[in-house]
Amino acid sequence: MIKPLTAAIGVALTALVSSAALAQETEASRRDAVDLDNVVVTGTRVATSVDKIPGAINLVSKEQVEHTLALTEDATAVLARTVPGYAESSQAMSNAGETLRGRIALRLFDGIPQGSPLREGNRNGTFTDMGLVGRIEVINGPSASEGIGAAGGIINYISKVPTVEGHETTLTTRYSTQFGTDSAGWKVGATHAYKDDAFDALVSGSYIDRGISYDGNGRRIGMNTSGSLSDSESRNLYAKAGVNFGEGGVQRLQLSLSDFRIEGKANYIQVEGCRYDPVDCPVPTTNTSERGQIAGALAEFNDFRQAALHYSHGDLFGGTFNADVYWADQAMRYLPEDGDDRQLVKVDETFDEADRIYDQSEITSKKRGLRTAWTRGEFLGVEGLQLRAGVDLVEDEAAQRLALTDRVWVPPMEYSSVAPYAQLTWDVGPLTISGGLRREDGELHVDSYTTTAYRNSVFVQGGGLEYTETMTNLGAIWRITDTWSAFVSYGEGFGLANIGIPLRNINVPGQSVDRIADLDPIIVENKEVGVNWRGDRAAFGASYYDSESPFGSSLAVDPVSNDFVMSRAPVRIKGLEASGEYRFDDRWKVSGIYSRIRGKTSFWADAPDGSYSAGGLNKPMGVLDVNPDKLAVSVTWNFLPNADLTLGATHLFDRDLYGEDTRVVDGEVTEYTYQENTEGYTLVDLGVNYETRRFGKLTLGIENLFDKQYILSWSQVPGWQNYWAGRGRMVSLTHTLVF
After folding, report:
1. What band does 33 get if pLDDT is binned at 50, 70 and 90?
2. Which of 75, 152, 598, 646 could cysteine-pair with 100, CB 3.0–4.6 Å?
3. Rg of the chain over all Cα atoms, to the nearest angstrom
């Protein structure tokens, strides 16, 4: 049975990227315009000019993707460098801590969601070969028109499209090294595209082999317990084909298939470091890696497969109709751990350390969905009035187990929903007004299960919950002059709060799924204002937002288990973002982004029995949720007609957070405090392209040019074996041949 994908944000409208996206693929457009990425389809389902969307939009161009690929194959690194509100890259298979505006974003590949809202495994940022990506569209803030999972916004990775009539093949080879033992990596990839009047197709395949990583001190970096890119190999297969038919070619049918797998090579095991302590660790050391294997361990991996069928009709009852049917099957396995929560029996004073075992977490997710949209201009005969309406269906299943002992950690969960929506947009001269409604009607079912020994092996009665919510959005954009515009918007988002975490953490008998308050949804209300300016040689944009959720979600580290725990309490996040670029002439361009985010939550939520209410917003949200302030600047110099150089720098600022509160219940006083201090750092990167024309393009990339030694921001907060340094200098040489 097919059910809705409120979480889905739909299947790729690749057909609608059309001529605007094709133009961006040419070298001429890359150098001639301030920004030709002026059409976004992710959040609107129909090609819409950015200057008619009331909100902060970031469009990551093909050029920006390729520049980041010259430095690293990390799938999320390009977002950290180009999107103001996006957190630092984890440099790992995991995207833990990589939030957008302090909240979880809905990640899509050609419109299909990666990962599951039922069990956020922080692995949905590594799902394809980035060499296949033509551009990335980011809509900041919650999206009421799209439904579940987009509390922080929408990030849609869009695959490349054929741009040349006839056949065209691109062959890419790459070699990278940190000049340390086993640090070398290599890649080979090929893409073949075909295009004629009515038919187009693209087939792509790649293989990447990665070595171990070293920090700026020349020391091996520890294997990330949530999944490392180091010492791994990945392969990617992708194919899509579409045909235009009917009178005038107004109809289109397109099929796309994707099969991606990244897997650890298991040559190294982690050696835990220690944080500074005047007695136990006077000389702090970060985690490192040494050669070896854990007996019986399985390789960690991400395995993402998906298929989508798209149909569009350009003249159906006077409007444009789009329908997408999709299927996705995803699996994620993590590294082995021997923590107390993995043991077969309760770890207490009688526990025999000789019985301690390693076990590995594995998350599986399946989803099926249908997404439809019908758009008509001049609605009801009103000039400039457009209606977009449709219904989304989704069925999402997820579960988590301990793979080596085949134990249930999070029971099978099923979520289904039907979500009709309608959106009106009205152009009145220089003013565009928009507003819409979406009705989320979902149902969650969880099987009965028994928790692990660490959680007292309690039985939890399964059951179901219903989620119904009507979400609204309103906005207006005023094109003040040919160069200036301003917008104001209000949007609501709907999400599920990583349901797997509260389910696996139940440790009190007599619980049932339908009585767990932490399973209640997250409703986000976002208010935003912004301005944009675009001139012949320059562009600038800035926005301020205020995002609230009365029963929100934030992460903390359990001081006993050192594992992540979820806190459900009111949340408020405010932020300022700015971005701009200036072209001095045809050869020189400078661009930059800045973001400042501050989040507050409560030390405690409402008591289940109503004996006390939630506390005030006195607890600052730390780096696990909200990224430190960020400034990134890059300079591009086209020093020859066929050569260019880009020098970029990203700076994360120091941040000191402190909060306290006191709760008094029946005369009993409870005091709370929270303190977090993170140290910033600056990384400089260099990329050089030389187009030989006949013999292809050569690209030299140097990540962390000055070999800076630093600790990743989210790793500066104590947690389970999470003390990792960032990657030191890496040099890469890429050759691209098109024929």
Report:
1. very low
2. 152
3. 25
